[in-house]
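Researcher: Structure for this, please.
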Amino acid sequence: ERREFFDRLRSSVAEASLRERRLALCMIHVDGLTDIGGIIDFTISQSIVAVLLQRLGAGSDGAAAPGWHSSRIGDGVFGLIAREFPDRMALRDAVEDLHRRLSEPVRVGDADFSVRPGIGIALLGDDGSEPAALLDHAQTAMLEARRAESGGVHFYSDSLRLRSLARLEVSVPVAQLSSALADPLLRPSAYQLLGFSDDPGAFDTLLK
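Model: Predicted structure, token format:
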């Protein structure tokens, strides 16, 4: 499923770029699945995943959402490629409706199970022109959505990246700091957040 999804993402990005069409990548983390599978019953968590995938593949009217492709790509993580939406607001409305449906309890046997989805969105063009950039930025937005009390929907923005940098602690490995500072557009602000605003070269020396 994971390989098939990433293959689909690459081909979808290439086609959308060639035809100048809209495309968005949504990364969805569902809190609660891991606990249900590890503490209660793995088969129950698999039943919940099946229901969530069904909800991901349908519109608010229950019909298949045109131009959208979804898949489970990790433990509690789903990917959704969205196409054929008129503008950002229409996409937000559709994804917020999806978030509402994913948040509804799932009935398995005689019990109802609740999960908490957090959805991050990256737009082709605005947030990246390559699959790797879209994945990275959608994941950043997804992690921000996870921090919200009720999950929610977050579009990627540079401020999200800076917010993540602001949470970094001294205990974070240098390799992770180096990766976080790889974006030249964000590097000056990152230096300031980490206390090297007066001498950015000092931080570059530290990373070597």
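Researcher: Any notable elements?
Model: Residues 177 and 207 are 8 Å apart (CA to CA). The longest strand covers residues 23-31.
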